[in-house]
Amino acid sequence: MEKKYTKESLQETIKALEIKQAEKGQLLKRELLNTYENIKSINIFRNIIKEFYSTDKYKQDFVEIIAGLTTGFLTKKIVVGKSKNPLLKIVGLAIQFGITTLVSKKYNTLKDSVIQIISRFLDEKEDKRQK
């Protein structure tokens, strides 16, 4: 035999489901913010510092790591800005991670390229002043 639903019972069920959905939404939001906090730059930086003091390997690469983190952080700030959008923040973190990794791995190549660009720029300015 089929169950008979009344208007009131359906409204109560809908209300209960809406409350449950709102609670799950809040829980998801808290988890997303928690995840975001755990992968923030400062927390990554803290972990790197701990490893730096515990091993000799990172003492040699300290400048490369700091350069990578700094460029990654600045890139994220440029892309995300002061947005409160969680999705945009996650995209910003992904970009930051990619830039940080790229700069850390290719530090010497990038450093040489930047030095060449600055030298050319300064040489051009010097040539214009002499003319």
Please, could you describe this protein's structure?
- With 131 residues, the protein is mainly α.
- It has one domain.
- It is 86% helix and 0% strand.
- The protein has helices at residues 7-38, 41-54, 57-60, 62-80, 86-105, 107-130.
- The longest helix has 32 residues, at 7-38.
In summary, what is this structure?
By secondary structure, the protein is mostly helical.
Number of helices: 6
Number of domains: 1
Strand content: under 5%
Order of SSEs, N→C? HHHHHH
Q: Could you list the spans in which at least 5 consecutive residues all have pLDDT below 50?
A: none
What is the arithmetic mean of pLDDT?
81
Spell out the key features of this protein.
86% helix, 131 residues, mainly alpha, single chain
Write the layout of secondary structure elements.
Blueprint: H1 7-38, H2 41-54, H3 57-60, H4 62-80, H5 86-105, H6 107-130
Helix pairs in contact: 2-4, 4-5
